[in-house]
Design goal:
With about 240 residues, the protein is α/β, with parallel strands linked by helices. The chain has two domains: about 20-115, Potassium Channel Kv1.1, Chain A (2-Layer Sandwich), CATH 3.30.710; about 135-240, no CATH class. It has nine helices and seven strands; from the N terminus they run E-E-H-H-E-H-H-H-H-H-E-H-E-H-E-E. It has a four-stranded mixed sheet with strand order 5-4-7-6, with helices on one face. The chain has a three-stranded mixed sheet with strand order 2-1-3. Strand 4, helix 8 and strand 5 form a beta-alpha-beta unit. It is elongated. It comes from Chunga burmeisteri. This is KCD14 protein.
């Protein structure tokens, strides 16, 4: 007696229509194994996840015939929880948000963006940093300078000049001209028109450099005696520790 196509081993029918598959689906997501239903995966028709399981199969299978998705597997359980019960995750919010964006599950994306973690990052911090001229480029410049100074050293330092207002720009330039250092190696941030303070910006710099895997700290840069400006009004030393 022949077995109907809907009861054949799941995931091996990569040449057939998904309409002929069993409603129970086995997935291998980045090495994590999940079992769910086609209706759950296709709950939001406009999503990329639903598109993967609509019409002709668009995924490869693993050696066991399970559909394979090359994404972080541990986060997928939160995606499934949302699809099954509309439960918005309260853990690993940043990682789940990335996966929701990848799978293009718009209702989950919007709900996550209302969470304090994502709201704070996207609406508060990112919007502030967007008003700091050349912020991302300056972060990369800091890292390049630090790496260039790291040869045969345990630590290397980068001097950062931070100006909060337009009025501070000229004062900072006068102070920079008085400093006994290579002025090309000083990275300048600002000015900006937003509420966050200099200390807020310094915290952002440290946060974003550390997010790239570097170990850093910072402190006010104190110039030599006789310096006619309070250098710590503008200048800070960021210390990279390599080992």
């Amino acid at each position: 007696m022949s077995i109907s196509s809907e009861h054949k081993p799941l995931g091996k029918q990569v040449t057939g229509s998904l309409h002929t598959l069993s409603p129970i689906v086995e997935l291998n997501v980045g090495g994590e194994i999940y079992t769910t239903t086609l209706s759950t995966l296709k709950k939001h028709p406009g999503s990329k996840l639903a598109e993967m399981f609509t019409g002709q199969p668009k995924l490869r299978t693993d050696s066991e015939g399970r559909f394979f998705i090359d994404r972080p597997g541990t986060c997928f359980k939160y995606i499934l929880e949302y699809l099954r019960s509309n439960q918005v995750p309260t853990q690993c919010i940043q990682d789940v948000y990335k996966e929701a964006l990848f799978y293009d599950i718009e209702p989950l994306i919007k709900q996550l963006e209302d969470s304090p973690q994502i709201f704070g990052e996207l609406v508060a911090r990112k919007q502030f940093l967007a008003r700091v001229p050349n912020y991302s480029e300056n972060i990369e410049l800091m890292i390049r300078i630090a790496r260039a100074e790291a040869v045969a050293s345990r630590r290397s330092s980068v001097i950062v000049c931070v100006v909060r207002t337009e009025e501070d720009v000229a004062r900072c330039q006068d102070a920079l001209n008085s400093l006994d250092m290579d002025k090309k190696s000083v990275v300048k941030f600002g000015p900006w028109k937003a509420a966050p303070s200099i200390s807020d910006l310094l915290d952002c710099i440290q946060m974003d450099v550390e997010a790239k895997g570097y170990k850093i700290s910072f402190q006010p840069h104190v110039a030599e005696k006789g310096f006619r400006f309070k250098s710590h009004d503008f200048f800070y030393k960021f210390l990279f520790t390599w080992w």
